[in-house]
Amino acid sequence: MSEIKVVPRFSQDRGNADHGWLKTFHTFSFAMYHDMNHERYGALRVINEDRVASHTGFGTHSHREFEIFSYVVEGELEHKDSMGNVEVLKRGDIQLTSAGTGISHSEKAHGDQPVHFLQIWSLPTTSRLQPKYFTRHFSDAEKQDAWVRVVASVNAEGVQKDLREGSKQGEGPAPVQSPLTMYATLLSPRKSLNLAVKGMKGYVHVVMRSGYNEGPATGATIQISGQNLKEGDGAYLQVPLGSDVVVENVGDRVAEVILFDLE
């Protein structure tokens, strides 16, 4: 069986900016950050790791023809949109907005604490869809040393695609109009996990849990096919057909890992 090819995307090489109210990293070209070598990967177009100061955030703005999801790491994220959805998202929550023909929304830190979340965009396979909004909740206990499918293609097995309007309605992954599946885990030291991916491309990201860091990555450490990745690091994966992705925690603390199967 052929070896999985791992092309690291080290944290210090990502685009990043400190705007005071917002500290952000960009895996792909975004806003004022442009890198022709990192524009997208499969259906993935944006992976931003954002920290928003308390009582601030992204004011009302518009999107169309993107699938936009937020994975809350710490703090509380207040969401409001033009479909009438108003919700405060907490750790373990994932919110997905299928922008379709167009929506307007705001995303702000709720309460007196900052919020740390991943903002992810993907490209839909069908244009001019009706905008929709979904939320799901996945506890730390569910993710402990296990892969949890938090987002999946709308047509994938077990996906409830008609429940919406917030309030964590429905079970299983949030339905995305893109050919991807997003998994999450909290991997303990000296533990490893296998994942049989469907596609031949993947992307992995280690969440920067131990604090904002513009320099070389530190903290929790995982290994894939001999490549070490620390908090904030990611990697492009090229997966031979029939191969499993094996992620091992080789550090001394729990690693929060996000893995995309790009079908």
From TrEMBL:
Pfam annotation, one family: Pirin
Signal sequence region: none
Family annotation (InterPro entries): Pirin, Pirin_N_dom, RmlC-like_jellyroll, RmlC_Cupin_sf
Record Gene3D superfamilies: Jelly Rolls (2.60.120.10)
Residue intervals of the Pirin N-terminal domain: 16-121
Similarity comment text for this entry: Belongs to the pirin family.
Protein name (record): RmlC-like cupin domain-containing protein
Organism whose genome encodes this protein: Lentinula raphanica
Lineage: Eukaryota, Fungi, Dikarya, Basidiomycota, Agaricomycotina
